[in-house]
Amino acid sequence: MKFKTIAIVAAPGPEAQEALANLSARHDTVPPADADVIVALGGDGFMLQSLHDNIEHGRPIYGMNRGSVGFLMNTFDEDGLLDRLAKAEPAEVRPLHMSAQNTDGETHEAMAINEVSLLRQTRMAAKIRIDIDGVERMAELVCDGALVATPAGSTAYNVSAYGPIIPIGAGLLALTPISAFRPRRWRGALLPETAVVTFEVIDPKDRAVSATADYTEIRDVMKVTVRQDTGTAITLLFDPEHDLEERIVKEQFLP
């Protein structure tokens, strides 16, 4: 695909800033608000930030790794950027919408590209009731927390909590417990992407829980509802030999 205007943004680290200076000297750029495509230089955290910053505008984002893991990024090369952009393949992901009610009765909303996670705030284990589409599926999960992950986010925190890796386009979400104590053998569930997941915190005063959508945290929650935002689509661009779907499949065979 051809792009007439590009914007280049970078993480604050020295490697990313050096790459920004070098690429900006070689290409005509515009501010992100005026661009057809955005090139993001950094790691996965900066890519998430860039996706959130542009989530309402729908501009495709092509990342190049100037961070650490770089799962959502392409390899970095100062040469051939315009040609790589023209040949890049799109991967469309849909974020999660989180609605969280805290103990003061306030409702907060946020979007998550990777996952929505609930975590205990104190030394005491959390106790959480889980409903799926209005049906109680677990009366009490005693745990450090629980999360709902998208396919794009299934290789992130979800994997650390021993959740399943989900291929892009599978139409599924991962519901994964974090350090479950009771029921001890429960490892979570795969849900259709249309599922509405509701977490109710049991005894939120003494067993306080926070809810986080990517990097937006709400403290002292009582009830959290998570659903896919079907009206929002985010487009990431990948080099043909490093597309996101292939990366997710490959991740399942790593030692």
Label this structure with key terms.
255 residues, alpha+beta, Rossmann fold, Tumour Suppressor Smad4, 2 domains, 6-stranded antiparallel β-sheet, 5 helices
Can you walk through the features of this model?
The structure is a single chain. With 255 residues, this protein is of the alpha+beta class. The protein folds into two domains: 107 residues, Probable inorganic polyphosphate/atp-NAD kinase, domain 1 (Rossmann fold, 3-Layer(aba) Sandwich), CATH 3.40.50.10330; 133 residues, Probable inorganic polyphosphate/atp-NAD kinase, domain 2 (Tumour Suppressor Smad4), CATH 2.60.200.30. A six-stranded antiparallel sheet has the order 6-5-16-13-8-9, with no helix packed on it. Strands 12-11-10-7-14-15 form a six-stranded antiparallel sheet, with no helix packed on it. It has a five-stranded mixed sheet with strand order 1-2-3-17-4, sandwiched between helices. Strand 8 and strand 9 form a beta hairpin. The longest helix is centred in the N-terminal third of the chain and has 13 residues. It is elongated, with a radius of gyration of 19 Å. The mean pLDDT is 93.
CATH superfamily of the largest domain: Probable inorganic polyphosphate/atp-NAD kinase, domain 2
Number of domains: 2
Helix content class: 10-25%
Beta-strand portion reads: 35-45%
